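Key result, reporting period 2: structure in, sequence out.
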């Protein structure tokens, strides 16, 4: 993607396609400090591994956090 605006639109589309977290996980303890929009990162432990799910109130932030989770190999719900 060469155009900056297209990058943001792509991130927003990625955010739209991703499921939201249940309200039970949108707690202060899972909120990412320092983000301009509310973003939650929730750890899950299984078979001696840690996985993360995430969500954000802003589509661009949600798209960015989903890219990070894909890179880390985390489950996305």
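The corresponding designed sequence is given below.
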């Amino acid at each position: 993607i060469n155009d900056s605006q297209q990058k943001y639109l792509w991130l927003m589309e990625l955010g739209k396609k991703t499921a939201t977290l249940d309200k039970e996980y949108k707690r202060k303890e899972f909120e990412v400090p320092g983000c301009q929009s509310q973003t939650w990162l929730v750890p899950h432990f299984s078979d001696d591994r840690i996985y993360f799910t995430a969500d954000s109130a802003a589509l661009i932030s949600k798209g960015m956090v989903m890219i990070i989770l894909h890179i880390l190999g985390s489950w996305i719900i």
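DSSP finds two helices and two strands in the chain. The radius of gyration is 13 Å. This case is discussed further under Risks and Mitigation.
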